[in-house]
Design a protein that fits this description.
TIM Barrel; Beta-galactosidase, Chain A, domain 5; transmembrane; 4 domains; DUF5696; alpha+beta
C-alpha cells in the first residue's frame, strides 16, 4: 500500500521535473544557444607582408622620401626613419603630408604638442592603476627605433612597438638558468664568444640552479654593450628576456606596458587607404588600449592658408581655417553615442553625425575622407590654429574597447566611480579612405559630388529613373495611442483611436480637394497595441482602428491617387508595455552585466536612465542577437498585409552593441546585423521609409523622414550646409521634421529652408484633437488636429512645389554661399535656385532675389 502511494506521489513530481527540464531546454535553445545572427558578420582578411624595398623613382617628387607605390593618379612616398608618408598627386603636383613639413617652426606648440605633430598614432590607454594615459608613436616607438617595415601590394605596413623597453642590462638577463643559458646563447656562439658570456656570469647564491651577472659586468657599460650584441647574435630576443626575468622572480616580475600596432597604407586608384587591423594589435603588461587617434595632421593647413574643414555635424558644417575660435574643438561620434554608453555619457540634445565623412578644402585642392571600416567606433575631431599648435586639422579617433564606470561605496560612506574595461580589443579593420580632389572640384560641393558618385558606383545609391510632376507630401497619421483605461475599477493600458483608417481617408480627401495628391502616408500606431507597440514578431492590425480590411481599403484609395501607405514599426527600442518580450534575456547588456534600458535604475551606477512619467515611453534596447528573429517573424507577417511599404522608426538610425560577457556583439557587428535586416525587409515590401537614416541605410531606403535640416550650433563651426541632402537628392525622396511640431513656427522661414535644402513638406496630423492625448506618452504631439493645419499645409506645399517640382530626380551639384544670407543651389538639369534669408533684397548673378524670398533660373533663363 505504501509503495502504491509512493508511486502516486512520484508521478506529479516527475511531471514537474519534466516540465521544468522542458522549460529550461526551451530557454537555452531560444535564448542562450541562439546564434543565427552570426551569419550576418564579416571576416577580415590580413595580407602577409614582405621585405620592404623602395621602388625605382625616375622622377622623384618628394624630397627626402622613397617611393612606395604608384597608380595612374598618385604616388606614395615614405621616410623610413621618421615613418611619415606623403602622397603626390600626378594630376596637379600637389603633395599631402601625414605630418606638417614645417612643424619644427611652430611657435605655439609645446614640446608635448610637437611630439604630437611628429606622430602618426596617438594611443589612449589605462595603465596598471586604471589611470588614463597617452602614448605617441613618435617618442615611444620611432625615436627608439622600435618599428618594422613591410611591403604590401601597392602599399606599406609599419609595425610600431610603443613602450619603454629599456632595462639597465638591455636584453641581457640579470638571472638565467644554466640550462637556458646553454640552450639559448652559448650553444649558438663561437667558443671564444661563449667563453666571454660564460665569464660574465657566476652561480647565484640566492637562486638555486640560476646564473647571475657578476657585479663587475653589471657596472661596466662597455661590457654590457658587448654582451647585448652577443645575445642578439645568438638570436636571444626581448621575449626571451621577459621569460627569464619572470621565471627568476617566481611570477613577481611585471612585464612593461607595450603596444604593438600595425599601420597600413595602400594606394587604390585616386585614393589612399589607411588601416589599422586591430586583430593584430598586441598588448603586454598591465596596459589596455582604449582608443587610437589616426593621422591627426594629415593634410593639415597652416596659419597662412585659406580654406575650411568639412564635418558631418547634422546636415553638415564648415569650420573656416584660422577662425580664432580657440575655446573648444569639434568632436562628434559617428551615428551618435552607443546606447550601451548613454548612461555613462552626458549626451546633449543634438543632431547626430549621420555620415562617416570629413574633409579639408585648401586653396588649390581638397581632401575628402570616408571612414570605411570601424565607422561605428569613430569620433571625428577637428580644431583650428592658435589653440595648441599653428595648424587647422581634422582626424578620426577610434574606440578599440569600451569602458564603463561602476559606483563603489566604502564602509565610511565614501564613494567613487571606478572604470571597468572590456577584456578584448574589438576585432575590426579600422579604415579611412582619403580621396584627393582637383581644383575644379575642391569645395564641399565637389566633395558631395564625389561621395555620391562613389556610392552610386558601389550600388548604395541609384538615380531616380523619372522626373515627378509634383513633389511628395509627407503625412504622418497618428493612429492608436496607449491611454490608461479601467475595467470594473481595475486600471489597464488600452489603445485609443486618434485616427481610424476610415477617418484617415477623410483627411486624405480634404488634402486632395486642395490639390495634394502625391502623398507618402506614414501610419503611426496601426498594429500590435498602438504607437508603443508590442514586439513586432507578429502583425495584428488594430481592430479599434478598423482592422486589416479597412487598412487595405485605405491602401487601395492611396494607390489610386498615385500615393503610398507605409506602416510604422520599431524594432530596437522595445516599450515597457511590450508583452511578448523577455527584457532580461533579449535586451542588450552593459559590460558590468545589467540590462540597457531607458527608464530603469542602472545598478552599476545607481542612476536613473530616463523616463518621462509614462511607462510606455520607457524602453529596452533589443540585443542585435535577437533582432534577426524579430525581423524574420515580422517579415513573414507583413507580407500578408497589403500596404505599399514599411516605415522603420529606429532600424536605420540606432546602432546599439550588446556587451554581455558570454556573447559580446560590438557596435560594428551590430551595424552588420542591422544592414542584413534592412536587406531582408526591402525584399518584403517595395517601398521602405527610414527615419533619420544613417548613411549605411541609404541603400535600402526609398524615402527618408527626419533628414537633418540644420546643424548643431557648436561655437567652433562657422557655416551650416545641406551636405547630407546634396549627396542623396535625386536618389532618395526625403523630408525633415514635421512642420506643425516645430519649436518656432515662421511659415516663410520654413519655406525658405525647404527650398534651400530640397526638403519636401511633412506634417503629423490626427482626426481627433491633440488634447485627447495630453496625458499620454505621446503628449509631445501637441498640435496635430488636421483641421487646424489644412490651409497652411496646402499653402506651404504649393509654394514649395512650384519651385522643387523642377528638380525631382536631379542631383544638387553645387550649393554656394554668395554672400551672408544669400545661397545659390544648382542642379544637374540646369536649374539654379536662389534663396535670400536677409531682410533686404539681394543681387545675385544679375538677378534680384527678394528679401526673405527666392528666385529661380532655368536652362536658357
Amino acid at each position: 500500500m505504501k509503495n502504491r502511494k509512493g508511486k502516486i506521489y512520484l508521478i506529479p513530481i516527475l511531471a514537474v521535473l519534466v516540465a521544468m527540464s522542458g522549460y529550461m531546454a526551451y530557454i537555452c535553445i531560444h535564448y542562450f544557444f541562439y546564434d543565427e545572427y552570426k551569419e550576418c558578420l564579416a571576416d577580415y582578411a590580413y595580407e602577409e607582408g614582405k621585405e620592404f624595398k623602395p621602388l625605382e623613382d625616375r622622377n622623384p617628387s618628394v624630397d627626402g622620401m622613397v617611393l612606395v607605390a604608384e597608380t595612374e593618379f598618385l604616388k606614395l612616398y615614405t621616410d623610413t626613419e621618421t615613418t611619415e608618408i606623403a602622397v603626390y598627386d600626378k594630376r596637379n603636383g600637389e603633395i599631402v603630408y601625414s605630418n606638417p613639413p614645417d612643424r619644427e617652426e611652430d611657435q605655439i606648440a609645446s614640446q608635448r604638442n610637437k611630439t604630437a605633430l611628429n606622430s602618426q598614432l596617438v594611443v589612449t590607454y589605462y595603465d596598471s592603476t586604471m589611470t588614463r594615459a597617452t602614448m605617441y608613436n613618435y617618442d615611444y616607438s620611432v625615436e627608439r627605433g622600435q618599428f618594422e617595415i613591410e611591403s604590401l601590394e601597392n602599399g606599406i605596413r609599419y609595425i610600431y612597438l610603443l613602450g619603454n623597453m629599456e632595462s639597465p642590462t638591455g636584453i641581457v638577463p640579470p638571472y638565467i638558468s644554466e640550462e637556458r643559458l646553454e640552450e639559448k646563447v652559448l650553444s649558438k656562439l663561437s667558443d671564444s664568444d661563449a667563453r666571454t658570456v660564460r665569464s660574465s656570469y657566476r652561480k647565484s647564491e640566492t637562486l638555486e640552479g640560476f646564473m647571475e651577472l657578476t657585479p663587475g659586468t653589471k657596472s661596466s657599460k662597455v661590457g654590457l654593450q658587448k654582451l647585448n650584441k652577443l645575445f642578439e647574435q645568438a638570436g636571444y630576443t626581448r621575449d626571451d628576456f621577459y621569460y627569464d626575468a619572470e621565471t627568476a622572480s617566481a611570477g613577481d616580475f611585471q612585464e612593461p606596458t607595450t603596444f604593438t600596432i600595425p599601420l597600413e597604407y595602400r594606394l587604390i586608384g585616386d585614393k589612399l587607404q589607411v588601416s589599422i587591423p586591430a586583430g593584430r594589435i598586441k598588448e603586454t603588461g598591465k596596459g589596455k588600449i582604449e582608443r587610437i587617434d589616426l593621422l591627426c595632421f594629415f593634410g593639415a593647413a597652416g596659419t597662412n592658408e585659406k580654406g575650411y574643414i568639412l564635418v558631418p555635424n547634422g546636415s553638415g558644417s564648415l569650420i573656416y581655417f584660422n577662425n580664432g575660435k580657440k575655446t573648444e574643438r569639434y568632436m562628434q561620434y559617428v551615428y551618435g553615442v552607443d546606447e550601451t554608453a548613454q548612461s555613462y555619457t552626458v549626451v546633449e540634445d543634438t543632431v547626430n553625425a549621420m555620415m562617416p565623412v570629413f574633409g579639408i578644402k585648401r586653396e588649390n585642392s581638397a581632401i575628402f575622407a570616408e571612414i570605411t571600416g570601424g565607422d561605428t567606433m569613430a569620433a571625428i575631431v577637428a580644431d583650428v590654429s592658435g589653440n595648441i599648435n599653428s595648424y587647422n586639422y581634422v582626424y578620426p579617433s577610434f574606440l578599440l574597447r569600451g569602458s564603463e564606470k561602476v559606483s563603489v561605496f566604502g564602509v565610511t560612506g565614501v564613494s567613487a566611480d571606478l572604470p571597468t574595461l572590456e577584456k578584448d580589443i574589438y576585432d575590426i579593420n579600422y579604415t579611412v579612405t582619403y580621396a584627393f580632389l582637383e581644383r575644379e572640384n575642391a569645395s564641399y560641393s565637389g566633395m558631395a559630388n564625389y561621395y555620391r558618385n562613389e556610392l552610386v558606383n558601389r550600388g548604395v545609391l541609384r538615380k531616380k529613373d523619372e522626373k515627378q510632376d509634383s513633389i511628395p507630401f509627407y503625412l504622418d497619421i497618428v493612429g492608436g495611442v496607449k491611454l490608461q483605461k479601467s475595467f470594473l475599477g481595475v486600471p489597464y493600458m488600452g489603445v485609443y483611436p486618434m485616427t481610424t483608417f476610415e477617418e484617415a481617408g477623410i483627411i486624405i480627401d480634404e488634402l486632395a480637394e486642395r490639390d495634394i495628391t502625391n502623398l507618402r502616408v506614414n501610419y503611426l500606431g496601426w498594429f500590435n497595441g498602438g504607437y508603443y507597440h508590442d514586439v513586432p514578431g507578429r502583425v495584428k492590425v488594430e481592430k479599434i482602428l478598423g482592422g486589416k480590411r479597412e487598412l487595405e481599403k485605405l491602401n487601395r484609395k492611396l494607390a489610386g491617387m498615385g500615393s503610398k501607405l507605409f506602416g510604422d514599426v520599431a524594432f530596437q527600442k522595445v516599450s515597457f508595455e511590450a508583452d511578448n518580450y523577455n527584457w532580461r534575456l533579449e535586451s542588450s547588456q552593459y559590460y558590468v552585466g545589467f540590462v540597457v534600458s531607458l527608464g530603469r535604475v542602472n545598478p552599476a551606477t545607481l542612476r536613473q536612465t530616463g523616463g518621462l512619467g509614462y511607462p510606455e515611453t520607457n524602453y529596452n534596447i533589443a540585443s542585435p542577437k535577437f533582432l534577426v528573429r524579430h525581423v524574420e517573424k515580422f517579415r513573414s507577417g507583413i507580407e500578408e498585409v497589403n500596404i505599399s511599404g514599411i516605415s522603420l522608426r529606429d532600424l536605420g538610425s540606432t546602432v546599439a552593441s550588446d556587451k554581455r560577457r558570454r556573447n559580446p556583439i560590438n557596435r560594428q557587428e551590430a551595424k552588420q546585423i542591422v544592414m542584413e535586416q534592412l536587406r531582408k525587409l526591402s525584399g518584403a515590401k517595395e517601398n521602405i521609409m527610414i527615419r533619420a537614416a544613417n548613411s549605411y541605410a541609404w541603400a535600402y531606403a526609398t524615402d527618408i523622414e527626419d533628414v537633418p535640416s540644420n546643424h548643431n550650433g557648436f561655437f567652433i563651426v562657422d557655416e551650416e550646409i545641406p551636405f547630407y541632402q546634396m549627396v542623396i537628392h535625386g536618389c532618395i525622396d526625403y523630408a525633415g521634421s514635421a512642420i506643425n511640431l516645430s519649436d518656432s513656427y515662421d511659415k516663410q522661414d520654413i519655406i525658405l529652408r525647404l527650398i534651400e535644402f530640397g526638403l519636401y513638406p511633412r506634417f503629423t496630423l490626427s482626426y481627433k484633437n491633440s488634447s485627447e492625448i495630453k496625458y499620454s506618452g505621446l503628449n509631445s504631439l501637441y498640435s496635430t488636429f488636421y483641421k487646424t493645419w489644412l490651409e497652411d499645409a496646402a499653402d506651404i506645399y504649393h509654394r514649395v512645389n512650384e519651385i522643387l517640382k523642377r528638380t525631382t530626380g536631379s542631383h544638387i551639384i553645387e550649393h554656394k554661399v554668395l554672400e551672408q544670407g544669400v545661397k545659390r543651389i544648382t542642379y544637374d538639369n540646369g536649374v539654379a535656385i536662389y534663396v535670400n534669408t536677409n531682410n533686404e533684397d539681394a543681387i545675385a548673378d544679375n538677378m534680384t532675389v527678394p528679401a526673405r524670398g527666392y528666385a529661380i533660373k532655368e536652362v536658357g533663363g
